[in-house]
UniProtKB/TrEMBL annotation:
Residues 43-124 form the D-glutamate N-acetyltransferase-like N-terminal domain. This is N-acetyltransferase DgcN. It comes from Pseudoalteromonas spongiae. Residues 128-327 form the D-glutamate N-acetyltransferase-like C-terminal domain. It comes from the Bacteria. Pfam families: DUF1611 (PF07755), DUF1611_N (PF17396).
């Protein structure tokens, strides 16, 4: 459904974590992006060329992507004139926010007039059954985290890329709006009705050949009070054979909360293995990825080495070290 190339809209973002949708597609599918459009006050960048909507249209942009995620997933009315300008320049609009583009009648009318599409990729239209927990053929790896926004999507994509390079039969299964935009398919699991999350995850990763791996993008964290429900449903439906634990250094509290320290890696491993064993008693942890961007490369190497010795697992920063050691462990 998504037509490239994209013009990625960053709005007036000032938080680097808020534009992970923009950064995700710019990092993994840069050939699909013609540039970025930023408003006054925006201090963040997806490292794409800055351009106006009119300039992007001249360069052939076909889709205007809302490349951010704010608290609550709201579409700010101050963005509507810019969305309208994109439609008037013949672009489809893609949003991964909780608010739906199709709920704004003025956008619906304008898009109809200009024969453009409003695409709310966060909102699945498919109906799902409840989960069963019955074993499926093929192999599955799920990325899980100590917190939200710790690199589960990046780790998943890095693993898929490395495994392909190793000649392994593998597919990335997107479970969030950013991943869906990058992969061109998938399911935003956090918008599925709670009773059907595990069933939706089973649908996302169906039976496959014995040598095939599905790399399933994790969501939230079992330790996060707000999002653990989604994380648990996704885990039970994914029925993972392997887990990769994702963590970010330097956080004083879980995202969006205060005075809520992140759990230890040891506790996270124990908690996730206990939960995953409900639908796969043979589940194992294959490795740990760490976002070490808050420290120097020397410190990062030392931290990963010490954690690897302590936990007996490969520990890497996917950006600095790659993920080959985790692939080898699989």
């Amino acid at each position: 459904m998504l037509q490239a190339p994209y013009l990625v809209f960053l709005g007036d973002a000032t938080d680097p974590l808020s534009i992970k949708m923009a950064k995700g597609v710019a990092t993994w599918k840069p050939a699909l992006c013609v540039g970025q459009y930023r408003l006054d006050g925006c201090t963040e960048s997806a490292n794409l060329p800055d351009m106006s909507i009119a300039e992007a249209a001249e360069k052939g942009a076909k889709t205007f992507v809302l490349g951010f995620a704010n608290s609550g997933g709201k579409i700010d009315e101050s963005w509507l004139p810019h969305i309208k300008e994109a439609i008037e320049n013949g672009m489809d609009i893609v949003s991964g926010l909780h608010d739906k583009l199709i709920d704004f009648q003025e956008l619906v009318a304008l898009s109809s007039q200009h024969h453009c599409k409003l695409i709310d990729i966060r909102h699945p239209t498919e109906k799902f059954a409840t989960g069963t927990g019955y074993k499926r053929s093929g192999k599955r790896l799920l990325t899980v985290g100590t917190d939200c926004s710790v690199g589960k999507m990046y780790t998943s994509l890095a693993l898929e890329s490395a495994m392909r390079e190793n000649g392994i039969n593998v597919d990335f299964r997107a479970t969030g709006q950013c991943g869906v935009l990058i992969a061109g398919k998938g399911l935003a699991i956090d918008c599925v009705v709670a009773d059907f999350i595990s069933g939706a995850a089973e649908t996302l990763s169906p039976n496959n050949t014995a040598d095939h791996w599905d790399i399933i993008e994790g969501q939230g964290s079992l330790s996060h009070p707000a999002f653990a429900g989604v994380s648990l449903g996704l885990m039970h439906g994914s029925q993972p054979d392997a887990l990769v634990i994702c963590h970010a250094l330097g956080r004083s509290s879980m995202r969006g909360l205060t005075d809520r320290p992140l759990p230890t890696l040891k506790h996270t491993i124990e908690l996730n293995l206990a939960a995953a064993s409900i639908t796969n008693p043979d589940v194992k942890v294959a490795g740990i990825t760490i976002n070490t961007s808050s420290v120097s490369e020397q410190q990062a190497n030392e931290i990963c080495r010490n954690l690897s010795q302590e936990l007996g697992l490969p520990v890497v920063d996917p950006l600095r070290h790659g993920v080959q050691s985790i692939v080898d462990n699989l």
